[in-house]
Amino acid sequence: MADTHAKLGYGSMAARREKVSRWESGRTVPELTAQLAMAHIHGVPQSEVHRLGWPHWLRLASGESELLTRSWTLAGAVETLRDVDRFAQCSARSYLAVTDPLTLTFTKQWHAAISGPPRLAPPPVNPPDALRGAQVRVQALETMWGTVSPAHLQPLAQSDLSLLATLASGPARHEKFAPSLLLLAARTAGLCAGLSIGFGESALAERYYLLAVRATTAGGDVRGSVGYLALVAYTHLLGGAAEDVILLAEAALAPIRQPGHPLPGFLHLLSARAHALLGDSVQCKRALNNAAKGLVNLADTKNTLKCAVTRNISEDWVALCTGIIAAHLGRPQQALDRFSPLLVPSRLSRLLPLGHDLLHIVDTQLALGQVDAALATAQRMITFSGTPSDRVARVYQQRFSAHIASPAVRRFVEKLAHPSTACEPRGI
Question: What distance in Å separates the CA atoms of residue 2 and residue 37, rounded to the nearest whole number?
Fold first, then answer.
């Protein structure tokens, strides 16, 4: 990069690894000329460096700019689908793809796309055998979600999504097949996202949901597109990007017109959690009241509505959220009172696919000195999801580092440090 910096006429710069380390850690921000040299290497226009600022323009250097720059058409969605294999390579990335200034840009593009004239549905056709087979497989995987470890299901779902990406280059790419292909790809990507959340990989889940948003929009399923945008907001909540959650939730709420649909309640609940994360108890209470109104008929409506979100909303998840809100607002005992009924094995097992959302229970138990209970909760999470990645293992290790004197905690941490001895995944 120092050579590029000089060739561009910006003068010499020190080529020291410690300088880069400070940039990576967030301790310092690179000088503008250094950023322009980086952008030149990665093919990012200078105008985007100035417009987005550091570190937001780095998303465009990561090879994921298609999530923002491709057209919201059948052709654009199919091209994004064909790049899906790169998504799986993002599992090591901890950052979200669409944040801060990019979030507003994305929601504006999305709203314009769903507000355009409705695309005329193509005449009914018999899809290729491979497409029909993929549909059968995704239906089977959906029935197993939540009961079988994501370690078993994730490779199968990713393989099916890769198959659909391959079909996007063959006969199924024809316009008469493309809508069906894209809608099936959205379901499969949504499944991959849910499984990624079970692993604690919320950044990867976000990328899958972004693909699903594009696919459903181009495929003419506005309701599905709204649902997947709501799930993008959920991944941002898991990633701690509270301001993005509020913006995404507002965008997803705007086009909902169906009375009694629980999706508004879900979105208001996400907003309540985001406000709590920001320490705004007033706005949090307002959002909670709106959520309660939206979810009042949850039990009666969720079984009659087919939606990527509503099929996963449950009273236990709502209770978990209210406990998390109490924890964010500094009320650990109130949080534990909400969590405790959920710790019954039969109820906790249904929440295990939520992955790191359950870490709030662990945090609350630790905050109240219940180390053994926190360890039991963490062990159940690990047992369900399978051997965690190094990054996820560090999340657990950091939480229990203050209690390493406990033999049970020490054994747990040692297992995380040696994956071959960690718990094997199993169904619940």
Answer: 8
